[in-house]
From TrEMBL:
Organism per entry: OM182 bacterium MED-G24
Recorded superkingdom: Bacteria
Family in the record: Belongs to the pyridoxal phosphate-binding protein YggS/PROSC family.
Pfam families: Ala_racemase_N
Boundaries of every Alanine racemase N-terminal domain copy: 7-224
Protein name as it appears in the record: Pyridoxal phosphate homeostasis protein
Record's function text: Pyridoxal 5'-phosphate (PLP)-binding protein, which is involved in PLP homeostasis.
Keyword Cell division included in the entry's annotation: no
One term of GO molecular function: pyridoxal phosphate binding
Cofactor (UniProt): pyridoxal 5'-phosphate
PANTHER family, alphabetized: PROLINE SYNTHETASE CO-TRANSCRIBED BACTERIAL HOMOLOG PROTEIN, PYRIDOXAL PHOSPHATE HOMEOSTASIS PROTEIN
Keyword Amino-acid biosynthesis: no
PTM sites of type N6-(pyridoxal phosphate)lysine: 35
Length: 225
């Protein structure tokens, strides 16, 4: 299967998942996760019409960002000494979880670029091994970042724990919790329109619970080595 075929297959999974729950396919956007992939792979996806790409590792990302006029999303862990390069080179950040980082990104976002779109990463399972804000810390975070002008917080993002093969788990449950959290905050924070959730294995469950961005690597580019 080529990258083009894979994107077509992912698009039809997204359409079917939307149809199953009565959502408009245009409400769900596909983020192609290109971490560890070559710029040739990204170019092949661009030729197939893909616009948005997600990267986790800044150094690996920058050579692609410089070369290719795509829309770039940062989806990795953010070290505070790397915020300037993120503010200068990305349109979206899905992994905001520190007020200090938010303030730095706001200050460092160049004036000639549009406002930086960001999503708060939420540790929806309270998994000690995962990064992200705990559910209880989200509203305090939003209150502490209301004044930022060059950074817009437009939704929530999560990476749920992987379901164990031997356990009967409801894979929709963590996605439902993120949606409920977003809905509970939306009257105070109307910009919170997005939910970034769902990857290659669970995009259907995430779409059923309201994902507006699905982040897909393996199903587009193949298994990572
Ligand atoms: C790698 C990665 C993905 C893509 O995962 P796949 O299972 O390959 O689709 C999505 N989101 C984040 C944050 C990632 O790091």
């Amino acid at each position: 299967m080529s990258i083009t075929d894979n994107i077509d297959a992912v698009d039809s999974r997204i359409r079917s998942a939307c149809q199953a729950v009565g959502r408009a396919p245009s409400d769900v956007r596909l983020l192609a996760v290109s971490k560890t992939r070559t710029h040739e792979d990204v170019e092949a996806a661009m030729v197939a019409g893909q616009v948005d790409f997600g990267e986790n590792y800044l150094q690996d990302a920058l050579s692609k960002v410089e070369r290719l006029a795509a829309t770039w999303h940062f989806i990795g862990a953010i070290q505070s000494n790397k915020t300037r390069l993120i503010a200068e080179n990305f349109s979206w950040v899905h992994t905001l979880s520190s007020v200090k980082v938010a303030k730095r990104l706001d200050t460092q976002r160049p004036d000639h670029l549009p406002v930086l779109n960001t999503l708060l990463q939420v540790n929806i399972d309270n998994d000690p091994a995962k990064s992200g804000l705990s559910v209880d810390d989200v509203s305090g975070f939003l209150a502490g970042t209301r004044d930022l002008e060059r950074l817009r917080i437009c939704g929530l993002m999560t990476i749920p724990a992987r379901a164990q093969a031997d356990q009967i788990t409801d894979i929709r449950a963590p996605f439902a919790r993120l949606r409920e959290l977003r809905d509970s905050l939306r009257s105070d924070y109307p910009d919170l329109t997005h939910l970034s959730m769902g990857m290659s294995e669970d995009l259907e469950a995430a779409i059923a619970e309201g994902a507006t961005w699905v982040r897909i690597g393996t199903a587009i580019f193949g298994a990572r080595t």
